[in-house]
Amino acid sequence: MNKVPMTVAGEARLRKELEELKSEARPKVIAAIAEAREHGDLKENAEYHAAREQQGFIEGRIQEIESKLSNAQVIDVHKLPRTGKVIFGVTVELLNLGNDEEVSYQIVGEDEADIKAGKISVTSPIARALIGKEEGDVVVVSTPGGEVEYEISSVEHR
């Protein structure tokens, strides 16, 4: 399987979620299943079925996180040389040449993307257009509303 790029913060967040699932959620659902079993007939026991469904979700999420972490390529942008080039993990300040609006995006892994927090996936159209470009370059991004021109104002290693 291919390595999945991930920031240091993204890896830490996944590890925290994994620890919470294993140390808190899993024991709670096991206790809920045991308690529901004590109520008797399992065929018509909604609490039992709900707890089993929750257990399936938790175990699936644990496997998913462990898989992602095992294939993660953690990139610490602070350890990389500042070249002014757009690479994974940097924060890019952009000027929309069509309406003079400024936007700021950090290029992160797919699991870390959160547009409201200014984090875009490395596989997004904007990030793909930006990767490899430098401060001062103008890039054209194809969006559903048409093509948008951005000038790269700054590239920061935050």
UniProtKB/TrEMBL annotation:
Q: Entry's Pfam families?
A: GreA_GreB, GreA_GreB_N
Q: Where is the signal peptide?
A: none
Which stretches make up the Transcription elongation factor GreA/GreB C-terminal domain? Answer: 83-156
Q: Name one GO molecular function term.
A: translation elongation factor activity
The membrane spanning regions, by residue number, are: none
Keyword Transferase belongs to the record: no
Q: Which domain of life is it from?
A: Bacteria
Q: Where is the Transcription elongation factor GreA/GreB N-terminal domain?
A: 4-74
What PANTHER family does this protein's entry cite?
Answer: TRANSCRIPTION ELONGATION FACTOR GREA
Role this protein plays? Necessary for efficient RNA polymerase transcription elongation past template-encoded arresting sites. The arresting sites in DNA have the property of trapping a certain fraction of elongating RNA polymerases that pass through, resulting in locked ternary complexes. Cleavage of the nascent transcript by cleavage factors such as GreA or GreB allows the resumption of elongation from the new 3'terminus. GreA releases sequences of 2 to 3 nucleotides.
Q: Which HAMAP family match?
A: GreA_GreB
The name under which this protein is listed is Transcription elongation factor GreA
- Source organism of this protein record: Billgrantia antri
